[in-house]
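Forum: Protein Structure Q&A
Topic: Joint prediction for protein chains with partners

I've read a bunch of threads here and the consensus seems to be that you should model interacting components together rather than docking separate models afterwards. I'd like to see that in practice. Below is the full input, 401 residues plus whatever partners are listed. Could one of the regulars post the assembled result?
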Amino acid sequence: MTAMTFPQQLVTILMVILGTVLTRFLPFLLFPRGKPIPKYIRYLGSVLPAAVFAMLVVYCLKDTSLFSGNHGIPEAIACAAVVILHLWKRQMLLSIAGGTITYMLLIQLVFS
Amino acid sequence: MRRDKPDKRQNHRQRQAQNRAADAQPECAHNAETESDGRDASAHKAGRGYRSEGSRTVAAFKAAFPYTIPIFTGFWFLGFTYGIYMNAAGFSFWYPMLMSLTIFAGSVEFVTVNLLLGAFNPTQALLLTLMLNARHLFYGIAMLEKYGSAGRKRFYLIFGMCDESFSINYTAQIPAHVDKGLFMFFVTLLNQIYWVSGSTLGGIFGGLLPFDMRGIEFVMTAMFIVIFMEQWMKDKTHASHILGFALSLLCLILFGADNFIIPSMAAILVALTVLRKKLEFPDAPGEAQ
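Posted by a regular:
Agreed with the consensus. Here's the joint model:
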């Protein structure tokens, strides 16, 4: 199934571990206790997460093609289902499960 | 999620006194790795220094556990789905299990499945991880004080700082009689146990489910939409949310699906820096030291 050899898989996973550990530990290495945190960094800490989450939504939908296949219709409907469920009940799991099941049903039964 | 009421706390402590004898045995091992950090001192100052390590551990566990119950359902569901997803992609359950144990970053683990299925490109794997996890830098900045003062436990706290553990540890009102470091330790540990067990079970049993699993990958999209909406509802101004969305979309059109993440991050960073004067005041009220 996979094109990579096992050592290649291992290196890929190690890279992902390294990247994750780096992003988690770096602030603590750069700003040890007591050292003042620059205001700019604190500002980024307050505004950046929102923009990154927006980017991740786009990332998830990046391979959706609007001009071929299903023209992104199942994706659009399922995204709308997530948003509506979440606005209605605001229960994270319900919104995620509802949207995912909607999408699975759409691509398996309606747009197959 | 409720804070202990005084009467409840009374009960709580009586129960702990009873538990103390029973717990003394297994907790001894834990005593050995107690740190002599600021938390201990504050516990003494609060006049509770008489309490044994064992009961401190139990108290912290009891305070932390309720906060993690919603995460339990979430992580089991998402973890299980992740396990199924890896299973459907042709990987044995060892992959989701060990990756959950060592990476412990849900979104990145989903993305890693795609990386493993593509061509071997370790630099791209590292860069993509750095970009996707860049938000951890800002969680870290927010937790400098709290985690920095948790003694040796901080290494695990920082390693296990996923979105959910961060959100709880950042916002939780930890009762005064509970050791903060231990509380945060248990939140992080429980969350990781939920995630690893969920993804392992998904990896083992995913193949046995009598359903057609096509489309399961949408779970990642749904998860990020919900996280984004939660962030939107929490914040008073939405310039950053809209900028993030618009710039990413623009970069996707300009650079294509495989190359847009890094330009997007750069564009977002530049835009937020340029707009700092406009955005800083509404968003950061108590920031002026």
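The longest helix of chain A spans residues 6-30.
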